[in-house]
Structure formats: C-alpha cells, structure tokens
Amino acid sequence: MSALQATGLTHRHRRRGPATLDAVDFTLPTGSICALVGRNGAGKSTLLELAAGVDRPTSGSLTVFGKPVGATRARVGYLPQDQPLEPSWRIIDVLRIGAQLNPGHWDAAYAEDIVEQGDLDPWARLDELSGGQHTRVALALVLGKRPDLILLDEPTADLDPLSRHELTGTLLGHAAEHGATVLISSHHTSELAAVCDHLLLLDAGRLRLAGGIDDLLEAHRHVTGTGGADELDAHTVVTRQESGRGTAALLRPAGALPSAWDSVVPTLDELILGYLGSPTAPALDLSPALCPSPREGQPLT
Amino acid sequence: MTLALDRYKTAAIFQRCLIRITLRQQLPGLITLAALWLLPFLTVLYWLRWTEYPLTQISPDAYGGSSYSSYWAAHWNHVGDFDSVLYGLVALTSVACLLLLIPATNLIRRDLLVRLNVVLWTQGASAAQWLLAKVAVLGAFVVVCFGTTGVLDWSLLHWAASRHLLVDDRHNALLMQGIGPSLVAAALMYVCVGALFAVIPGDRINRSFCRLGLLFLLLGLDSLAKELFSGTGGMRRTLITHRISGVNRSKSVLTGVNPVDYWLHQLLNCTYDLAIAAGALLLALHLLRRRTVPTHASSGQGRAADGRALASGGWDLRRWASLIRPGETR
Fold first, then answer.
1. Would you state the torsion angle of the CA atoms of residues B257, B263, B269, B270, taken in this order, to the nearest 10 degrees?
2. What digits encode the pLDDT tens for the residues B230-251?
3. Would you tell me which of A198, A233, B94, B177 could form a disulfide with A32, CB atoms 3.0–4.6 Å apart?
C-alpha cells in the first residue's frame, strides 16, 4: 500500500492566482524515507501542508494510506518549518499537550526520551531554548504520537552539524523501529543522500523527478568528453556545459553512449542541481505504483 | 521501552485540553480585560457609596413622601447625577459589548498568524474544536463579566425606580437591553462575530472591507430588530412612569418595570442575539472547513468536489457535527 498518493494534485492560494502545485502525481511507498527537494517557493511546504491536512487542494486528490487525508490525521505527524509553539510554554507543557490531544496513542516515555537526549530541563520555557533545542522539543511532540507517516519541513535548517546528526539519528531510529514512512524537505542534499531512499524534486509547482534514489541515479549519466555536442542528441540531455576543454553533460541515456565519452553515475547533488538548473529538461517519474517503467521525456502533467 | 497508553476517550466537541491551552495562552489578556471591566464597575459602586450625599438621603423617602416639590428643588442635581450614572453605565456596557469584537478577533487571529493552529490541528484536535475552545473561553469570561454587570444595572434600576430617582427622558430600549440576560446574549453575539471576523480569508484589504461590511450590516439589522421589538405595541410601557404634578418642570419619573413586558423584551432580544451568534459561528466553522481538510469521507478530493458534496448534502446537522469531531483514530 502506498503511504502517500497524489493524483492531479493542484493548489492555488488564490482562486485566480498562480498554482503553487500544478497537477502533481506521485506515489510514496510505505516505509520509505523520501527527500523532498526544490528551490524556495517550489511548493514543498504546500505539499507537506496538504498531506498534513492543514490546507486543502484546489483540485486533484491526495490519499494517505489509501484514505482521504482528513480520515488518517491521527497517523500523521507534521513538523512545520517554523515550528510554531507558544514561547511561554514549558517543555513539560508541550509533552502534556501531546498526551492530552492524542489519547490512546501517545508514547510518553519515547517523547521524554527525545527531550532527555538533548539534556533539556523539562521545566525550561521554550523561549529560553536554542534553535536546535526548540526543534528537538517540536520533534518530540511529532514523534510522541508514534505516527506512521512523518512529514518534516526543513527540520534541520537552523541546526549545527552535530545536532543535525543527532536528530537524524532519532528520526531514523523511529522509522526503523516503527516502520514509519518519512517525507522530509531539506536543502542539505548531500546529507539526504545518506538517509533517504526516495526523491521528489519540485520546481515551480511541478514535479520534475520522482522515484527511488538508486533508480533515478541509475537512469542518469554524467558524461564528459571532447566530442561534439551533437553526439549526445540521441539521448535526453538534462543539462550541458561546454568549455574550451570539452563538454560535460547530465543525461538520460537512450541506448549505448559514444565510446569517446567518459560516463559515470552522477551523485544525488549533481542530479538535483542538474534538474534545478535546467527548467526545460523533461521530467522523470519512476514512482513504483504509477509507472513501473520509466516514462522518458514526458511531462508529469 | 514501554508504550504508555492513555485511556481512550471518545471524541468530544469541547476538548478540555484545548480549553486549558487557550486559558494558559490568553491569561494575561483575560486579566487585562477583567481589570478593564472591574474598573468602571468598582468606580460606580464607589460613587454610589461615597458620594456627597448617601443616596438614601436624597430619595423622597427621606422626606416622608410629603413634599415632592421641596424634594426636587433640593436634590434635583443629585437625581440628575444618578440618572446620568446609571444611563452612562448602561451605555458603557453596550459599547463594551461592541468592543468585544477586538479581543475575540485577535484571540483567534493570533493563532492563525503564528500558525499555532497548525500544531494543534495535527495533534488530534480538529479545526472546529480549536475554534470552539477559543470561543468557549472568551464566552465564559463574557458571561461572568457581563452577567454581573447586568445584575448591577438591574439592581440599580430597580432600587432607583422604587425611590423615584430616575427621570424617564431617555430611550427605554437601551436601558432594557442593559439590565438583563439580553446583555449577556448581545456580548456572546459579538464574541461569535469576532470569531467570524478572524477566519475571513483573503488579503488584509479585502478582509478589512469584509469585516466593515459585516459590521455595518450587523449594526443595521440590530437597530432594525431592536426598534421592532421595542417600538411597537406596548413594549414602550415596559418602564412604568408617572408624571408628578408640582414637581419642577413636571418630570416623568420612573417608578418601576412592567414584569410581563420586561421578560418578553428580554426573550425577543436574547433570541435575536443568540440566533445571530449561532449563524456567525456556523459561518466561521464553514470558512475554516473551506481552508482545511475536513474529517469526513468526502475530504481530500479538492474544494470543488467538497462544494458539490455540501450542496447536495444540504444543511444536514449531522454533517456539521462531523466537522467538529477529529479524524479517525487507529
């Protein structure tokens, strides 16, 4: 069963305004850890809010574990980018609120563990905490309800590397122990590569890449050579850079590459930067349920 | 690690936790409001107790009821003062009712601005429960404050009327509105309208115009309705007066309140105010529903589909009730 499935998902903030999400289709398998990447304003936060049920699509549908979003709210944990909590609350208040608002499925010991791992005083006020400590408390509130789908909107944006590492460990521990699905939006693409197994790349409200990271990387090649650029015309070129010493390109091979070209599998960073730097490159959807074989060169709309 | 499970509770319309959260959030604001209410309240009581003449001395009873002429000549200014204080208190209470729009709007708008609602809505509380908790907290505060003010006004009116201290040259409707349960109903109406103002969508300019338009519509309707309730038939006789011959300028003096007309007047006003309050609250819930994913099965299919579903489903109360309950639990 898919944890999250979008079909023609469209969202506009105003009725006649531009689409923040434009006919997005994807499927996120249960148990996957998915990176949601894109430029600022690409629609990442909007997609997460739609999945969390705090906003609703203009058209199209979004299902969580096969049910409408509103019907599965208890199974979804959402950490917004700004982590809005009342500054005058104490940490213990936040944990109590979590317990009281999630009767029957609140793991108090686990939430307290997350807080204790950060050496935080439960009686400390939230406005006395650093950014990283605040994030830890907000994450305890999200994970304490033991959600099956965790939506995190740039949770590590204001954290130092060590805190990022610790929080990522906590998150992965929960996902592994509980079999939860994680959709995490972040700009730290190099760190995502080590953690995530799926990728959703949004650009200007449209889905540019979707699927397993290994599959996506395998479907691309980073080539360098001194041959003419026209030798690559048979392949789907995502981005191309020409210099005096030759040509470098990120492409989706359609058959064998010319032997004069050096070809390597790109890194996740290169793949993401290649697509973000080339808005006209055709999208690729390798989502398992929607499309078992690559739909090369076809827009996802 | 043990999984600490809380006792399962069925979904309730009012979540006590949300009430506590709201109380904790708004405690400084509520204390300020209480102080603002207490100040004029205590001032009036102080004035009544420690004015230059104790009120019992300036009532006609102190003269044995023998000579109204000499009573009015001696104490006209004090009677006028008392008259003004009571009417002033009632007028002030009515203005305070209208001003309730500001805290009611801000109470809810603040959460939407800082997005605290997002945390609560994804923690097992539905948007409707969140809104109702906010309204309930302010509503309870309003019932206590305006209820006691109404009782004070009512007691003063009856005490003064029994001693011929009030000169009936004011509008009856205002006085009648300020001395009974209809005062509380009016205050609750403004709280609910404030909640509606808070969830009106759109940018700041459109929202302001919408609020102004709604406010003028509300005031116009209010004035029309109150005139209808008090301006026709015998309702004007609700305050019983009689003219006292021989008194300076032959004033009409308030001598009592007709109990039958009084309760009819209160019933009509309360019904009108509570109907407007309920309408505003339902509209606010509907606007919240339009911006969030509801919990019933037709959700998740987009606004257009939900609009069609609501149109076909009509105003079924069960559908509205389903908006309030949170989503399915595991």
1. 130
2. 655 455 556 676 666 555 555 5
3. A198
